[in-house]
Specification:
Oligomer: single chain
Number of helices: 2
Helix content: 40-55%
Number of strands: 4
Length: about 90
């Protein structure tokens, strides 16, 4: 008898859990407007450091001009190494 009662309680809990999950999923699905453009996150422009080959956010990059061309670096150390290699 107690076993049957416990099984019944577990079935009720599973039923309400599934019902809640399905309701929230359907609500989220129907809230989207079919003709509205998808909301996108705006990314930040990245630049490639020519010395260590890492990408850096353009606003945070250290920029230097070598031989008339503008280069972006992740740090002062990379800028100095690049300048030493390409001097001459």
């Amino acid at each position: 008898m107690i076993r049957n009662l416990l099984v019944f309680i577990v079935i009720i809990v599973v039923y309400y859990s599934l019902k809640t999950v399905l309701r929230s999923a359907l609500k989220a699905y129907h809230e989207e407007e079919p003709n509205a453009p998808a909301a996108r996150l705006k990314g930040e422009e990245m630049v490639l450091d020519p010395e260590c080959r890492t990408y850096v956010i353009k606003d945070r990059a250290l920029t230097r001009r070598f031989q008339g061309k503008l280069y972006s670096f992740c740090s002062e150390a990379c800028a100095q190494r690049y300048e030493e290699k390409h001097r001459g």
